[in-house]
Amino acid sequence: METLNFHYLMLYLTYLNPVCSILTDACKLCNCSRVGLLCPAQATAYRSPGLELSLSQFYFKIIPSEVFQNFHQDIISIAISQSDSLESIQNHAFAKLLNLTELTIRSTKNLVHIGHRAFENLPKLKYLSICNTGLRKFPDVTRIFSVELNFILEIYDNLHITTVPANAFQEMNNESLTLKLFRNGFEEIHSYAFNGTKLDQLFLNDNKNLQRFHNDALKGATGPNRLEIVSTALDHLPVHGLEYIQVLVAEKSYYLKKLPALDKFANLVEARLTYPSHCCAFADVRLKDVEIMDYEYLCHPKTLSCIPEPDAFNPCEDIMGYNFLRVLIWFISILAIAGNAVVLFVLLTSHYKLTVPRFLMCNLSFADFCMGIYLLLIASVDSKTRSQYYNHAIDWQTGSGCSAAGFFTVFSSELSVYTLTVITLERWHTITYAMQLDRKLRLRHAVLIMVGGWIFSLLIALLPLVGVSNYIKVSICLPMDIETPLSQAYIILILVLNVIAFLIICACYIKIYIAVQNPELTPTNKDTKIAKKMAVLIFTDFTCMAPISFFAISAAFKVPLITVSNSKILLVLFYPVNSCANPFLYAIFTKAFRRDFFLLMSKFGCCKTQAELYRVNNLTAYTSNCKTDSLYTGPKKTSRADLHLNTFDCQYLSVNDKPARLDT
């Protein structure tokens, strides 16, 4: 076999000599010019069977129609490459080369046109490659009529081709076909694009702009057996033709967040996907329908192989892994929202002036209200995605919904802990310095303190949104990512601050209890009630913080003691304890709140008797307080057991805290 290699016997066109000899010993009559390649009829005298043409770095612009026809039985390979001059391949340029097996067109960046049926009737063609050209539309590769098995078509690095039209490969070959369509500018694959083909393998990798793969794109085709869509922008797969697929490769396809119905993948045996949740969908899928009673299939049932496998952070389960949690989270979220909403409404509509305890309670109720919103979001999404979470996991965890839920829960929990600590310190300060009015905490001081708390809580909640940990790691949208040292430090800092806050609360309540004890008097029922009240407050804080902090700190140091599935029990049963209990312990169960509530209801014509009773009692208490203040002449202290621990009751400790008005 004689090789005609134009890379070495090349076309020496220079600025001074525009015409050259190109076929040397094989054909002295073929020549090239700046217009095109020409081989006249007389060239047949120089035919050489088994001819391989390699045209590299030539300077002509056009390959004319049927230019190789006089060698139609001799040429077995044509390689065109490394030419910046070639602009057009005309109609039927390579047609009817009966023994041509390989045709390559590469690195011709100015080639913008390949004529109609330029590759027609090439029965022995096995390999066609069109790469790194300037083509603006998909080349006409129809009617090749190849009869070879395993025909391979490569079209890649053509950045200006944006669509694959209908019937793009029709009558190309009659046997199995492999399409390698890499790194093109594809944005859309039209319906019936692969009509009339027997697809063995279809590679669409690295078409980063490919967004639309029409549902009917594979209609009329048999196959593909293997489909690869690595690094594309596809957000869905076509619904027709998936039954042939045995191997699906969709790695780095971050937009593909939802898969078609699983029964479409009737023959799938291997899947390499982007997200672990998609593998959950295929966990128990069989190769064939269970109704097919094939002996070998029944004796040796096969399950498909799927990667990446679900990890510890994303197990194959719904958001609320247990049914009892699915019920409880609704109850707890509604309780937290309703309780805190009532407290906020009563406080903000009360005609009594805003005191420090009231102001702090407003902040606490708002923080706990946000926790209720978080729980309601989680419960709603769990209900919506039940039994099909694998198809919604990526949209949820990477979307704005999960980010909003995570922001709500971190912001609310930190603001709640901060406000509880301030309330406890304010109680301790009020009781410790009850007779020193000059040391009383003023409202403006409380506002400044809470502004600091809001800034701190907002900052802590925003950090995962800017890359310090994140909210997308788990389905419950908590910041559990500790992959980087900064993320790990962030989680540990939050947990340590919460533990410190709990210790401060415990220390303050112990000091308060010691302060209200009068060693000269025997313990009274009021002392016992105060002690019980403190015990309840500390117990609720401990119940909320202790289990969460213990298991979270161990996980932060990469020694997890429970799974994410079990952590959801903590999320529902312990995490929101304070948010549900706070409005009752700090407001609803207090006399002052009940007074405000009944006075508010009386404006709507309800509870008038109870409201009138509270008006009378309030006037009596205010008058008595004024008399006590007028009789005060020295540093003598009253029994501290008479000091109330209820947040709203603290407003009566000073005559300066008189009500704005006593009637409605």
- Identify the CATH homologous superfamily of the largest domain: Rhodopsin 7-helix transmembrane proteins
Structural class by SSE content: alpha/beta
CATH structural class of the largest domain:
Mainly Alpha
Task: Please give the order of strands in the largest beta sheet.
Answer: 1-5-7-9-11-12-14-16-18-19-20-21
Number of strands: 21
What is the number of domains? 3
Radius of gyration: 40 Å
The geometry reads as elongated
Question: What share of the residues does DSSP label as strand, in percent?
Answer: 5-15%
Please work out how many helical segments DSSP would assign: 13
CATH topology of the largest domain: Rhopdopsin 7-helix transmembrane proteins
Into which percent range does the helicity of residues fall? 25-40%
Overall mean confidence score, pLDDT: 79
> Main β-sheet, in a few words?
12 strands, parallel
Low-confidence stretches: 1-38, 40-47, 286-293, 628-664
How does CATH name the architecture of the largest domain?
Answer: Up-down Bundle
For the structure shown, list the relevant keywords:
21 strands, Leucine-rich repeat, LRR (right-handed beta-alpha superhelix), 664 residues, disordered N terminus, G protein-coupled peptide receptor activity, 3-stranded antiparallel sheet, alpha/beta, GPCR_Rhodpsn_7TM, disordered C terminus, Rhopdopsin 7-helix transmembrane proteins, 3 domains, elongated, luteinizing hormone receptor activity, membrane
